[in-house]
Amino acid sequence: MTLAEKNQVAQLENLLEFAPMAVAVFDTASTQTLLLNNAFQTLFGYTLTDIPDLAAWYDKSFALPEASQQSVSPRLTRIEEGASPNLPPFSIETSLGSKDGSVRQVCISLTLFEGKKFFYVNDITDHLIIEQRLQVRSDMLEMVAKSSSLKDVLTVIVQQVQRESPPSLCSVLLFDKQEQRLLLGAAPNLPGFYNQAIHGIHVGPNIGSCGAAAYHNQRVIVEDIDTHTNWQAFTELTQKAGLTSCWSDPIRGADGTLLGTFAIYNSPSPTPTQKDIEQIQFASNLASIAIENHNAHQELERRAYFDYLTGLANRRSFFELSSNLLKQASALKENCALLMMDVDHFKKINDVHGHDLGDLVLKHLAKNSLANLPEGAIMGRIGGEEFAILLPDTDRVSTLEVAESLRESLSAEGLTSYDNQTIYYTVSLGITFSFGLHCYTDELLREADTALYKAKQTGRNRVCMFNGC
Ligand SMILES: Nc1nc2c(ncn2[C@@H]2O[C@H](COP(=O)(O)OP(=O)(O)OP(=O)(O)O)[C@@H](O)[C@H]2O)c(=O)[nH]1
Hints:
Elements: H1 3-17, E1 22-27, E2 33-36, H2 38-44, H3 54-62, H4 69-82, E3 91-97, E4 103-113, E5 116-123, H5 125-145, H6 150-164, E6 169-176, E7 181-186, H7 192-198, E8 201-202, H8 210-216, E9 220-222, H9 235-241, E10 246-252, E11 258-265, H10 274-305, H11 315-331, E12 337-343, H12 346-353, H13 355-372, E13 378-381, E14 386-391, H14 396-413, E15 415-416, E16 422-423, E17 427-433, H15 441-457, E18 463-465
Parallel strand pairs: 17-18
Antiparallel strand pairs: 1-2, 1-5, 3-4, 4-5, 6-7, 6-11, 7-8, 9-10, 10-11, 12-14, 12-17, 13-14, 15-16
Helix pairs in contact: 5-6, 5-10, 6-10, 12-13, 13-14
Bound molecules: guanosine-5'-triphosphate (GTP).
């Protein structure tokens, strides 16, 4: 080799050594490794000592469940066979394992040149992740638009994060504000017994990673579950489930309120990197859209059927429920009673104590009446301060007893106002019966209303029956 040729080879080696793409060069005859360039060593962590020849590289990098020898080797053999100095290199996409156990998605191409095999490895992991995330985002939005179940939508998000960083396992827990608990949203790959045990855990400063993340409304990183105090109470459970680490991020709504938590268990790196944080944020943001949409939907449904102030059935749903009950009762020839209840001098209560206290009276009446009604009774708010109650399968005596006990308990109890005063109020009731006949709700309501009018006319704070009952 002339000096000029030697210089050319050295220049070529230098070019390959510092090329931005990972390059591995093997001797075709001996299969010995000639070069693993800088980019290759940085990407996979392997040096010449780890990969002395082609077989060692295949063993180390291709022995993944995702890229088993069976599927990749024949394709590599094919590209080796097809490779020629005269043909453009053709490539395959696959997963390759790194020395630290992480998995990279790559595009490999091969050229043969002067008795050497040149493998060019292009790392497309980040590119694929972005593509997958865009796909997941659009799938998720489509599912939300089609009103898929919240569990299904959250499962799509969880599976994307798990796909991005094997062998991690993820869960979404939903915040139950009233009970201050976390309920299972989606955790498709965590063991069933673990999910069962976690469903309903309390929110608290030292409760696992999720209970604590929800309590502090900030990310909680537990690198070693076995030794962390937050997890002491769950050691038996986490060991049985094979869980070693858990990062949990609060999922917040657009206005910052807590909606739930997103947890990543057994992440490949013990502490989250910037990329991991971006990943958690991506998942939390998508989960937040899904949960907020679900909550808004439920709230709309609730408003369609229930009275916003008292939580009782509203006029429309009282009519629906009572019509069904009246139909069933007439088929069985059972007697139903319909009661109308109205707060006495409610205008005066509002005028003297204010509208807010008036509202409090209505809530108090609803809550206490429900507690005193027999099983199977239906109660609804059908007007401002007017309530209707349907008692199935009843008779005159027991209905009177129910009505009198409602009237007495409400007037006796009184309620505590915002400024700690005890306010007393009374109610009047009118009653009518279906006598096992086929009756419509509105006709029974008219009769009960007539009886109620009589109760008002004859002094209020009393119960009256419709004529002939
Ligand atoms: N605080 C409050 N008041 C309401 C609500 N809906 C209706 N009202 C009030 O209820 C009052 C009903 O007054 P009236 O129909 O004159 O009856 P009343 O004062 O109870 O008198 P009697 O029924 O004859 O004993 C009105 O002042 C309404 O403004 C509500 O949701 N909250």
